[in-house]
Amino acid sequence: MFVPLSVLDFRDRAAAFFGEKIGVVDGExxxxxxxxxxxxxxxxxxxxxxxxxxxxxxxxxxxxxxxxLEAYYGVLEAxxxxxxxxxxxxxxxxxxxLNHAGSRAVFFHKDFLPLVDALAPQLSNRPxxxxxxxxxAGPAAHEYEALIGSSSTEPRHQQVDEQAMAELFYTSGTTGxxxxxxxxxxxxxxxxxxxxxxxxxxxxxxxxxxxxxxxxNGWGVPxxxxxxxxxxxxxxxxxxxxxxxxxxxxxVTRLLGVPAIFNAILHHGERTSFDLxxxxxxxxxxxxxxxxxxxxxxxxxGCQAIVGYGLSETSPILTIAQPxxxxxxSEPPEKAAARRSMTGWPIPGVTLRVVDVNGADVRRDAExxxxxxxxxxxxMNGYYRDPDATAVAIRDGWLHTGDMxxxxxxxxxxxxxxxxxxxxxxxxxxxxxxxENAIASHPAVLEVAVVSAPDERFGEAPVALVVLKPGxxxxxxxxxxxxxxxxxxxxxxxxxxFRESLPKGGTGKILKGELREPFWTGMTERVH
Length: 528
Known about the structure:
alpha/beta; Rossmann fold; GMP Synthetase, Chain A, domain 3; five-stranded parallel sheet; 26% strand
């Protein structure tokens, strides 16, 4: 008998086999898996009572809270689509996402009431608003606990279309407008199984959700941790002391994070005063990690450190630099250590190639560079309401990542550069085009190019090269202030350099590679 694949099975499994175990911790609040599952049923029934219909989008503007973890299952149980929103974006950007998604309901943490007040009038779909952790205010007509508290704990048993969209995440990509990545029930289910085979979580694992669950490095985790009966510990805001306190208090066994987070821990003056001995593994993703960072984590935290790689478009994990015994037994220790800082090898269910401009596989010599292309059941259905962008990204059945890499004889890939002008600052994707457009809107700017430059704290950061109009002037602080009015703060250029002219090719296109090169001179890789 055919049974549709649905991540709701993971919640039901946790409730059945780990029901009386503390499954979710959010500050002072703790929930057993049985109680937490009941809360997801309540949320599903509440959403239906609000008049939402199958396929409607439900957006969440919040930190890593138990509410959002409940939404990962309650929204889907109601037959709806979950859309966690990046809270670091500007009101203008978030309004665009809510309008493009056509959100019918927006749940928001009370801290974001000013944001919601500002964007509500800009929304064409007139969604219903629900406030969390606070009293009804602003456009909110409902309070979360009151809403679900009056709903039934009975599960909603409805047929799931495994190919239907279940979750919708927006990524900046390479253009100024975010693109919606549509992930199906089937893709999310199979991703959890594939990731679990590689990472081998179990019921004794305690995961601290450091990376926001709206982020590519965060959203796959709730499914395979729930499936295995591990414990979720929510960290609402990243702070090194708060993170280390949580690891010590809850005996956290694994951390997933971007390099900037791990750098902050390693270089914090109070680190040695915390007991972090429960950590067994840290997984670095979101942006490339240096071998030096991997070594420092293993030496100073006393746990295994490995690198992972994935995309919004792939649910997200594609590769993990998990050691293979066959190699570690035959290679010197330094080679094995170096492998853990590589981009990794594909997890089960992922077919990955590195190809040249003609689509032929590059040599497996760790020298010839090509583009990573992938296919598999965890690749997105496509960009939501954007067939043109989908056709560009998925060609001949392969998703073209735009990431340039080499591959060695053992199938380990290492990203060397990017064909797309995306800057990854601390794991956050920044579109250079979007930043350029913001700077170019200043009346004194004639031309601008934004490129990546190495950054000790965030891996890399945007730097702007600007040519001013004759007779006009503007200072670096003034341009940064201008950008802050148009962009999220993490997108504002770290530095602004003024030039007399910018190099151009025969077609008049600005040669960004030539501008980028001086910043990376002496680096072995063009990602940091």
